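Letters spell out the chain; the tokens describe the backbone. To illustrate:

===
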Amino acid sequence: MLTRLDLAHFKCFELLRLPLGRLTLLSGTNASGKSSALQALVLLHQTMKDAEWSNRLMLNGSELQLGTVTDVVDKVHGRLSFVLGVVDDDRSIQWTFQAEDRRDMSAQVAAIDLDGERHCEPSDLHFLLPMSTTQAGEAFARRMCRLTYLTAERLGPREVYALQDPGATQVVGPRGEHAVSMLHGSRDERVIDELVLAEAPPTRLRQVEARMQQFFPGCSLDVQPVRQAKGVTLGLRTSNATDFHRPIHVGFGLTQVLPVVVAALSAEPGDLLLIENPEVCLHPAGQALMGRFLSTIAAAGVQVLIETHSDHVLNGVRRAVRGDVLSSNDVCVHFLRDRDQWDDQVVSPSMDSQGKLDTWPDGFFDQFDKDMNHFAGWGE
């Protein structure tokens, strides 16, 4: 499990050391760096997966298109270099990346600090690690290559979804574009035993369907390949009394939640799952259920990082902790703020075993209280 993310001169961060838990929830104001923190991990994943022998960090690839070095170096303090680092249960790795020109679309590995040992200008790299340490870093590299990243801009309803080779596509894709294809290809595989709902067969398709029914009562899924075409269709219904419908006829909520559920139930213990705004298109009760669902996934051994603007998702996590679904020791909550306005760019409330937080900084899911205080005197 990753236990810390370190950044220096990366995007809006001059310096960041962010503790990570089994479940990490990132909240904060717009443009405060929540997505940037996730993107740092995705850049490492993208490079290891798309260019495993490269000695450059790929800023543009299958998961992210971040542009040039100008777009990723801290504009205030950075020049042509930045640092990405991670700490896990076994090792500490920190990469210093250097560009020759701010218009470069990738950055050279200038140095690697691996468990306190510095490797300067390494040339022979595999998965961004020196060849001499590849065996020691194999588990880390495998975890990073299997990382799943879901952006807030997920694919909406489609008539037909592209059918992918199951051997080549192991994740749902950043927009959830491979979710239906994955569900078709792995429909008969078992999910993690700890995640099996007793009311449904333990296969992935039926477990995904059972989880979707928790969000959308009566939901059923029908996934069918298109004959003589590289495509698959998704039929949806919300009642046994109706036929299956095209996705466009059942509301955006189902197609926004489905990639989250497929990704979560396709993960293995030790995998990394990064999700932006899992609450998209969900009713408040569904948002709270999403927090509890992702807590359940984390409790089963999958590391989950969430970026959210929803206090309902947070409260779903808090209720999961109080209900002993997940230990409070496994939860990290971070509130990010504009560094130009605050001395502390990150505030990290602690959660106790009852789901209570020890601090509520200004702007941290307090808008409801502010609005109610505003209305309090209107009746006088």
Q: What stands out?
A: The chain is about 25% helix and 25% strand.
